[in-house]
Amino acid sequence: MLLAGIMLLSILSYPLVMWFAPRENREEEEIEYLRRGITIISIYYNSNNQYGSEMQNIIDFVKTIPEKYTTNFGEIQVVVKERNSSEEKIVMKSYNGERVIDKDSLTRENIIKNLCEILVYSSLECINVTS
Question: Which of 15, 35, 102, 131 is most exposed, with the fewest beta carbons within 10 Å of its own?
């Protein structure tokens, strides 16, 4: 029981610790996340733009994914990164592959479909999506 508690604490605290890592270690950080079975969702958009409600809703929705798409043990398995870019897209990476969703395909349904296909640990939220 103690070992399980330590493992859970380690998994939950790792994203917070990595958040404060120097930016030059971004590639090493991603490799470590992937090695641990964590899926990385990077949202690329221009943070200086005033987006309409549709794009802002997508951004807000993606930020809620880590809480909703946990493992069956309630462990966080998704990390969301915001990247400033002139191009609007979402890139998902996991041990199971990579998906790129361009601006024209950015819908909640498409995001969830692609996420459920590459999650290392299938989430209960994905049952209706993949069946």
Answer: 131
Radius of gyration of the chain measured on its C-alpha atoms: 15
Q: What pTM was estimated for this model as a whole?
A: 0.76
| Nearest-angstrom CA–CA distance, 103 and 96 | 23
**With bands split at pLDDT 50, 70 and 90, how would you rate the model's confidence at 65?**
very high
The two structure tokens encoding residue 101: 């969703």
Domains and CATH numbers, the chain: 2-130 (3.40.30.10)
Written as six digits, the tokens of 33 are 């996340």
Strands 97-102 and 78-84: unpaired
Q: Is 79 helix (H, G, I), strand (E, B) or coil?
A: strand
Q: What's the farthest any 2 CA atoms get from each other in the chain? A: 49
| Beta-bridge partner residues of 91 | 42, 100
Distance in angstroms (rounded) separating the CA atoms of residues 39 and 79? 6
Helix (H, G, I), strand (E, B) or coil at 89: strand
